[in-house]
Write a structure and sequence with these properties.
Elements: E1 22-28, E2 32-33, E3 37-39, H1 51-54, E4 58-60, E5 63-67, E6 73-76, H2 78-91, H3 99-112, E7 125-134, E8 147-156, E9 167-171, H4 189-204, E10 209-211, E11 228-233, E12 236-240, H5 249-260, E13 264-268, E14 280-285, E15 289-298, E16 303-306, H6 313-326, E17 337-339
The structure holds pyridoxal-5'-phosphate.
Amino acid sequence: MVNLADWEWSELRFDYYKTDCNIRYSFAPDTGWSDMQLTEDETLPVPLAAACLHYGSSLFEGLKAFRGVDGKVRIFRLEDTVQRLQASAARLCLPIPPREMIVEGCCEVVRRNLRHLPPYGTGAAMYLRPLEIGTSTSFGVKPSEEALFVVFCSPVGPYFKGGIRPIDVAIDCEQDRVAARGTGDVKIGANYAASLLPYRHARELGCASVLFLDPLEHRYLDECVAANFFAIRDGKYITPKSTTILPSITNRTLQTLAEELGIEVEVRPIPVEEIASFEECGCCGTGAIIAPIGNIVDMRNGKRYHYTDSVGSTSFALYQRLLDIQYGVAEDVHGWNTIVE
Ligand SMILES: Cc1ncc(COP(=O)(O)O)c(C=O)c1O
């Protein structure tokens, strides 16, 4: 194991590094949720016939903790993450982890791994990964009554080393990410498994991600493999309204910040033809905050739509504003930060 305390923080990639400990809670119908268990072990004891290994009873979340300019440690939008995690558990018929337990797990995993929390000014942060799996054993397809809830963390470097850079995305890589009335609006492992093949097709085209269309009609923009989509045009922030995309916490945050900067926000179905008219567009999510889109490659007709070679001014203003709140440089007027210590 690499001793991260000795690491050059600036060398960190956006990747997994083992830390000192992680946190677990188990659920059984008779006893409910266990007390918090702390462990150094980075493996899980999972029965061979567990539901998570066969029937996709698996969900997760991703959020970040930051060492601020004032030395305080903040977790960004923890309460929103709690709600989304609970919605995912409900959709998978898994035991729903109580709010207090999720909050305790996230705060405690940061406190116990403080020496791995990157200092302010390095551009790095600590990524938290809560997850829940169904552990009941059965050959029948049915909801898992037992579960394991885990929170682990890893220091992560900035998504873009050496500054924000545009990525290319591909439209219509043959497969949909989710079904029209499926599970696109929750954060479950199965959605990501289904994205892997179209993602591979996009990579073969030299693109960093897929921009999926709505799975019912393939007429509207939906989202990317692990990020929402937004565009800027005529002074407006435009982002898809769709029941098949994950409600991104970053996207919601950017909408609020856009309004505060006097930018009108439109959340509506976006016909795919509109890609020809965008001034800026990008992917947004916890990892990168904003990844500007340099080009959209439309696989249906081979057309390439070019937007930027760097980052558009509106996208950058929103990105900077959000970072300032996360690092305690700008005031957190919305109460988005949970101070851990
Ligand atoms: C499919 C998908 N959409 C959108 C997002 C962005 O969501 P958030 O801003 O909450 O990280 C993610 C990343 O978590 C994702 O995996």
